[in-house]
Amino acid sequence: MADLVPLAQAHCTARHGHDHRLGDARIRELLPEVPGWELVEDGHALSKTFTFPDYYRTMSFVNALAHVANAENHHPDLSVHYDRCVVRFSTHDVGGLSENDFICAAKADLLAG
What we know:
- It is a single chain.
- The protein is α+β, with helices and mostly antiparallel strands.
- It has three helices and four strands.
- It has helices at residues 24-30, 55-72, 99-112, and strands spanning 38-40, 45-51, 77-80, 84-89.
- A four-stranded antiparallel sheet has the order 1-2-4-3, covered by helices on one side.
- Strand 3 (77-80) and strand 4 (84-89) form a beta hairpin.
- Helix 2 packs antiparallel against helix 3.
- The radius of gyration is 13 Å and the shape is globular.
- The two termini are 23 Å apart.
């Protein structure tokens, strides 16, 4: 799906089972499409820290991201602070990263714009 459209314009689809976990080669292909995101947890998750000038803007981002996550039915782990939010994506149902994680990472980047 993301091969045909930019990641930020793609939509998540249900991914269950290890067959949908991305291999190292595919992760290396997709990672440049989400600049600033890092592989964490031995490559099983994506993480990025978004910084903001104040709490209000941090919470605005968090609320907007919650809306997108709900619409895509793919929810990140968040660590929210006064001037930053650490976002972590992983697909628990596949035991690592799926294309959905990269789609939602790209959408988070658009929100932070």
